[in-house]
Amino acid sequence: MNSPLPSKQIFTKESLKKQFRLSEFLAEKVISFVAFLSIAIIFLIFIFVFKESMPLFSFGKKDKVKTEIQTTSDVKVESYEGAETSTEEIQPETYGAPTEDLNPVTQETQTSEELEPDTYGAPTEDLNPETATGKEVIIDEKATENKEGADRTWSTFFSTEWVPVSDNPRFGLLALLVGTLKVTIIAILIAGPLAILAAVYTSCFASNRRKEIIKPIIEMLAAFPSVVIGFFAMMVLATFFQDIFGYDSRLNAFIGGVAMALAAIPIIYTISEDALSAVPKTFTEASLALGASKAQTAFFVILPAATPGIFAAILLGIGRVFGETMIALMATGNAALLSANPFESVRTFAATIGSEMAETVFGETHYSVLFFIGSLLFIFSFILNAVAEFYVKGKLIKKFQGK
Amino acid sequence: MEKAISVSENPFYKTKKTGGNIKENAVVGLTQIAVLLIIAILFIILGIIIYQGREKFSWEFISSFPTDGMTKGGIFPALIGTFILVIVMSIAAVPFGTITAIYLTEYAKENSKFAAAVRFSIRTLAVVPSIIFGLFGLGFFIQFVGTGMDSAFNDGELHWGQPNILWASLTMALLTLPVIIVSVEESLKTIPRELREASLALGATKWQTIKKVVFPGSISGIMTGTILAVSRGAGEVAPILFTGAAYYLATLPESLSDQFMNLGYHVYIMSTQSSDVEKTMPIQFATTLVLLILTLSLNLVAVIIRSRIRRRAK
């Protein structure tokens, strides 16, 4: 049945316009909001990890500290003594601001309790001669000492010892940094060449059938939980390599590095393989047509063309190893020694957090330092990812599209 | 129809170049050795763990509680704890991940700065070390949300402001979110554009199209994502170290505010903090074997479903 068209024109500009529907509008808004949450999570992670390390920054950044504290203390005041003390610890803002003497009594008692071990238990430390000026009951003076507490923690960051639990705690991040770097370098030196060579074979030499077998198997390695790899390294690899090399400490940087290489291989392999496969076929065919052999083409044409992608693969591999916790906890021996010997026990940043967080008390310096290490790890992995993402991608696009 | 022969397929090329060139063969052989080495290591790990773990591995081991200070008995509570963890985690992460993926494929405009930021955040989330999630769980869920809930509902009595299953699962959900988003997005992309256009042309609105056409087509992707996320969540230990895992519990957890035992954590503490590491070695290997079977078989299922999706795309 042909429904008769109305004689008048109905397709006006108005009627063709998209109608406003509330359900559509709401659906889009809700979905966009959920998507927005993933951005928010990144910020929240940074804020909340960094927030707990705030007491370490109590000597500067006045305004920032204050606002942070105000937002959190509302919630925590009743339930956590520790929260109270940590807010008090940040009082150095009062230094130089004499108008702020609202609660002199509580402030004084709390700060002195909190900071006694830091400031007075350090007779060997002669970096801050002002500490010797004595204990005067003036608020401003207290604040100065408080400042010294944070300063002292910072000055120990560059020492070589990691002794967080003692009368004179020292937080020598240097020892941890060296340990982490040692393990990372060993792991990447093993995983990098192995994974890249395997990727070259898969994308340049292997037949399609082999490719379909090899790829899922190597990617299966990524499904191994890190605790399993750590366990294997600790139980089997450690004994195996000790029999070969005959070193003293069974668990050491080398074992940790080998085990972490197992965790990094699938990442480096997958990303480099993708990068190699993304090189246009014309590159290969031009090279072959000029008389180059397959191997020459792979190593002198395809590999250089895919360099940015392989660089990204290595970066992400480093990121994985740098933050790997369980393998480091189980296979590196966990002793913060400062030495260049790869066969000595080391302790990495992530392992330190993992093993010591359970023993710390909410709000104390050790707790803050661990969170501070956490924010360093977060910033580091964030930067690595950003470099891999923007710099490398830009280069690849330029290379292949000639823009 | 004339098919262009690529140079590498040209028969003349092969006879001329590859025959007996030692250097060439050595280079190719080197790359081949790298592949074989990786695969060999993988099977050696598997083989040793199966070999060492088989002796203790039995139904009784799986279904009984640990006894005698965890030097004897099974791993039942750890297994149940892991199950509860991944279930609560999936309930939190799957809807969230699916909706984000739908946003990225259906709503996000090309060159949209917002969508680029979302993508970047997801990729960052995927590379953030797992221990950072643990710290975040402690700082945000336990210290901020948990204690906040306590002071609001429980008069400051400590109930939610301590490690428990809920916070551990939510922490794990954040960790596995990128896995789900990537899988769902991949499967959404395989749904032909014509289907969407046909639906829109018939007068369906965008939301109706998503509900009736796009979403049903992405079920397999959601399944793959969930399975991969579960496989990942079952194996990760670092995020739950201080958000809820317990050394030993005599009873199974009864509510979301209880602590729980976990397979991976069990392996960790048994091998590093057990009273007698030598004696409990068979138990450790068997626990590792159970964990490995769990994660690898889930992964295998996901790979199979995924390859089916890819075939559909072709």
TrEMBL record, chain A:
GO cellular component, as recorded: plasma membrane
CDD domains: TM_PBP2 (cd06261)
Record function comment: Part of the binding-protein-dependent transport system for phosphate; probably responsible for the translocation of the substrate across the membrane.
Span of domain ABC transmembrane type-1: 177-388
Organism the protein comes from: Flavobacterium gawalongense
Pfam families: BPD_transp_1
Biological-process GO terms, alphabetical: phosphate ion transport
Family recorded in the similarity comment: Belongs to the binding-protein-dependent transport system permease family. CysTW subfamily.
SUPFAM superfamilies per record: MetI-like
Localisation per UniProt entry: Cell membrane
Transmembrane intervals: 30-50, 171-200, 221-241, 253-271, 298-322, 369-392
GO molecular-function terms, A-Z: phosphate transmembrane transporter activity
Gene3D superfamilies: MetI-like (1.10.3720.10)
Keywords annotated in UniProt: Cell membrane, Membrane, Phosphate transport, Transmembrane, Transmembrane helix, Transport
Protein name: Phosphate transport system permease protein
Residue numbers spanned by region Disordered: 77-127
PANTHER family: PHOSPHATE TRANSPORT SYSTEM PERMEASE, PHOSPHATE TRANSPORT SYSTEM PERMEASE PROTEIN
Membrane topology, as annotated: Multi-pass membrane protein
InterPro entries in the record: MetI-like (IPR000515), MetI-like_sf (IPR035906), Phosphate_PstC (IPR011864)
Gene giving rise to this polypeptide: pstC
TrEMBL record, chain B:
One Gene Ontology cellular component annotation held by this UniProt entry: plasma membrane
Keyword list, A-Z: Cell membrane, Membrane, Transmembrane, Transmembrane helix, Transport
Membrane-traversing stretches: 26-51, 75-104, 125-145, 165-184, 213-231, 283-305
PROSITE patterns: ABC_TM1 (PS50928)
Single GO molecular function: phosphate transmembrane transporter activity
Family affiliation: Belongs to the binding-protein-dependent transport system permease family. CysTW subfamily.
Protein name per its UniProtKB record: Phosphate transport system permease protein PstA
Species assigned in the record: Flavobacterium gawalongense
Gene name in the database record: pstA
